[in-house]
Amino acid sequence: MSETNSAADVAAPHRYTAAMAADIEARWQDFWDADGTYEAPNPTGDLAGDPEQAAKPKKFIMDMFPYPSGAGLHVGHPLGYIATDVFARHQRMTGHNVLHTLGFDAFGLPAEQYAVQTGTHPRISTEANIENMTAQLRRLGLGHDKRRSFATIESEYYKWTQWIFLQIFNSWYDTDADRARPIAELVAQFESGERPTPDGRDWSALSAAERADILSDHRLAYASDAPVNWSPGLGTVLANEEVTADGRSERGNFPVFKSKLRQWNMRITAYADRLLNDLDGLDWPEAIKLQQRNWIGRSEGARVDFPVDGAGDITVFTTRQDTLFGATYMVLAPEHELVERIIPAAWPDGTHPVWTGGHATPAEAVTAYRKQAAAKSDVERQAEAKDKTGVFTGAYATNPVSGERVPVFIADYVLMGYGTGAIMAVPAHDPRDFAFARAFELPIRCVVEPSDDRGTDASTWEDAFGSYDAKLVNSANDEISLDGLGVVDAKIRITEWLKEHGVGEGTVNFRLRDWLFSRQRYWGEPFPIVYDEDGIAHPLPESMLPLELPEVDDYSPRTFDPDDADTQPETPLSRNADWVDVTLDLGDGAGPKKYRRETNTMPNWAGSCWYELRYLDPNNSDKLVDPAIEQYWMGPREGQPTGGVDLYVGGAEHAVLHLLYARFWSKVLHDLGHVSSAEPFHKLYNQGMIQAFVYRDSRGIAVPAAEVEERDGAYYYEGEKVSRVLGKMGKSLKNAVTPDEICGEYGADTLRLYEMAMGPLDVSRPWDTRAVVGQYRLLQRLWRNVVDEESGEVTVVDAEPGEDTLRALHKAIDGVGGDMTGMRFNTAIAKVTELNNHLTKAGGPLSRSVAEALVLLVAPLAPHIAEELWRRLGHTESVVHQDFPVADPAYVVDETVTCVVQIKGKVRARLEISPSITDAELETLALADPAVVAALDGAGIRKVIVRAPKLVNIVPA
Q1: Are 949 and 898 in contact (CB under 8 A)?
Q2: Is residue 638 assigned to a domain?
Q3: pTM of whole model > 0.85?
Q4: Same domain, 506 and 526
């Protein structure tokens, strides 16, 4: 028989049981909703007539957007939501105006994949999932301002996502001003001649298409033909951040190939320096800051141009420009746009047979190798494989410092995702270049003097030599010599020479690439872009927003092979001709014209890039957010120079996806004057994960954890021995425990307490259903301390509590308050438990003042039982907005402490003394103690070391 259905429960009609908890919790959830208990007033309107509320400090607390999964919640999901709720409740009770709410990030692939399989419209399944998840979250008693909740699939929400896209599209980054500016200001510069066009012609002499191309090179949102991560299995392209380390899709684990498609991009690279520098002012975990710094990847070096006959220049970025004289060949990434332009019709005379890969022409060799490279992930391409692969393009470039003609190869170890997608290969001083040069019998020239005894004839070396602490050799021409210089000085000298001769310059490079913003799927925000008959992109006017998704008959991309890199996408939207081909008057003076809509959709990250702003002003149909409201909740202030949400809680897995993207959008909106905050989230807190044991049979297949039996330290399922490992919790692993199960068995308050008591919030911890009962019993003891289980009457008295109880109470108040502020909820619960146990052991009815303080301490953690007890204690206002207890310092300090007295390192006495005793007073007491006098036995004293109030050390003469 379970704890909740024991004989004692039946015998005591007013005992706190799961049934009573369910009744209490449902009643108070209904009351909070009807009363608007958690509604946070805004500074305009709501607070205008309430000066007391207006004087409160504000606190904006957020959870990372949940996705409404069809599987519903397991007990691991609410960990962060419960934590922010506890913190928000404590902040309300300490005098803050708290904004805490939760919406749904509802666009994305899972609903669309389900639609492809079943034919069910993604909106139908998504809304059903939202309804289910909302009910599950409500049962937990989360104190959200429900007026502010929304889902990203609502047209009134994504109207503003589209509007923000248009702000970005209609902006460019002014490097002189170091901020984004409206594109109209750039056009004005071209029109006036202040800024010359690329070919020097007047702006008025350019065609509309030529102007559009020039502006596209500056816009912060632009379309381009570029190498992309193409996942046929998902039927869409992916951003770099959505591809796993082993070259597969983060969603679905499908193969990812390199392909060239026309896509929308966000010029996030324009903000690389600011994204990097502004991390310093954020209160984020250092591990997350480090991940972002590494992803942005700032490095200083030089740009160098290598001329190619008839094809312009190959530009490389290098951090070792000092080794330029050692560059004996070049390598382009297979996807590099110059490859087609530089390959000749036939192999040059004398081409080494190893370089051709056995192909008759350079074009054949390049085509074959590109297909081979596209089938590899970036990780596979960069792996230190024993055999280096590549093929000669048939073209030669000229080393600008030596004048030497060097062959140009393509090889998969060079990626388009870093630098320029081209390298100057210095095989003597780079291991990968060395291995490639050996494989293709290319020259290896030493230009950095080795510190060992290998000598400078690199043809005899067995491996490359790399060092920053060495001298340059073999590095001179008629105009410059680096010989004898150290690496640092050589870098400076060669960089100056490159700039003087117009073949390069010092520059900064970033690992960060522009954000690929197109998806070839249905379930996402439509782009507010149309194309005219010349293919020029035009933004829709704001009056035409939102552009809503049309109905389609088929949600799937056109038939594709998940393992075929040559498969090309056809989007579901492109098959709705009535929606795609339209006649519109865009209000630009051109009158009604025929246009074609963009048939890609935005990625699922778009809606979560700005949702914090919608929480502030969710019903505003006229503007993104009221400036006064945004300034109040998110504006810069002391200690928060870039503004942002006061506390943002979520998983560390979003370090370089959502968090980086949201920071970028926030900065653009800030630059354009739409918001006062330059950062979206000031303080970030990463909660840990609730884990569970996974049991697998001999085939490695997960079996239902609830049906596994433990016998003599081994585990069995249906009589067969199974293995056990600690891992994630999830439906597919058959180890998920739902919050509904725990709420039904013990109540939501018990679940809340258990999740907060399991350990520090920021570390992972294993779930143990058997341990939940401990928090259930705590609540039962709390209930018994206030309510008689037989009569249901409150048992408190108006008498003053004793001094021991006052000390226990105020120590708990002091400790719990500090723990709440520091989000140390596990230790806060331990202190509440200690106090409750003290009161239980003390016996007799509680003093009303003690009972009320105890209920207020518990209120943030277990709000339902606290609300019930607060009302039973005679109060008519909700416990939610009561003041959190304040500790009396006189009772917090221990009345006495134990002081140890040592002689020659041995403890000779223990004194119970006042914590405020002085060194002189303590020394007098210690020397007068009978045990100390006896131990000294008349010996003189050379020194007395006093560390009041804990230690006296006596050194005899």
Answers
A1: no
A2: no
A3: yes
A4: no
Cα–Cα distance, 415 to 381 (Å, whole number): 8
The model's confidence at residue 45, banded by pLDDT at 50, 70 and 90, is: low
Which residues are 581's β-sheet partners? 596
pLDDT in tens, 798-853: 999 999 999 999 999 999 999 999 999 999 999 999 999 999 998 889 999 999 99
Q: Which residues contact 678 (CB under 8 A, 6 or more apart)?
A: 278, 636, 642, 643, 666, 667, 670
Question: Do 360 and 420 fall into the same domain?
Answer: yes
* Counted domains in the chain: 6
Domain ranges, residue 853 = 1-35+730-892
Q: Please say if the pLDDT value at position 84 is more than 80.
A: yes
Mean pLDDT of 755-764: 95
Q: Which amino acid is at 417?
A: G
Strands 405-410 and 391-398: antiparallel
- What 8-state DSSP symbol labels residue 397? E
CATH number at residue 1: 1.10.730.10
Q: For residues 584 and 823, give the distance between their C-alpha atoms in angstroms, rounded to a whole number.
A: 55
d(CA 684, CA 572) in angstroms, rounded, equals 38
My answer on whether 421 and 382 are in the same domain is yes
Looking at the predicted structure, is the pLDDT value of residue 48 above 70? no
Same domain for 457 and 378: yes
Contact 820, 887 (CB under 8 A): no
For the cut 80, the answer to whether the pLDDT of residue 148 exceeds it is yes
**Do residue 456 and residue 550 come from a single domain?**
no
Phi-psi region of 263 (alpha: psi -120 to 50; beta: other; left: phi over 0): beta
Phi, psi (5° rounding) for residue 409? -110, 165
**Residues 45, 49, 50: CA angle, nearest 5 degrees:** 110
pLDDT in tens, 477-531: 999 999 999 999 999 999 999 999 999 999 999 989 899 899 888 999 999 999 9
Nearest partner of 656 among 257, 245, 260, judged by Cα: 245
Beta strands per DSSP E along 831-877: none
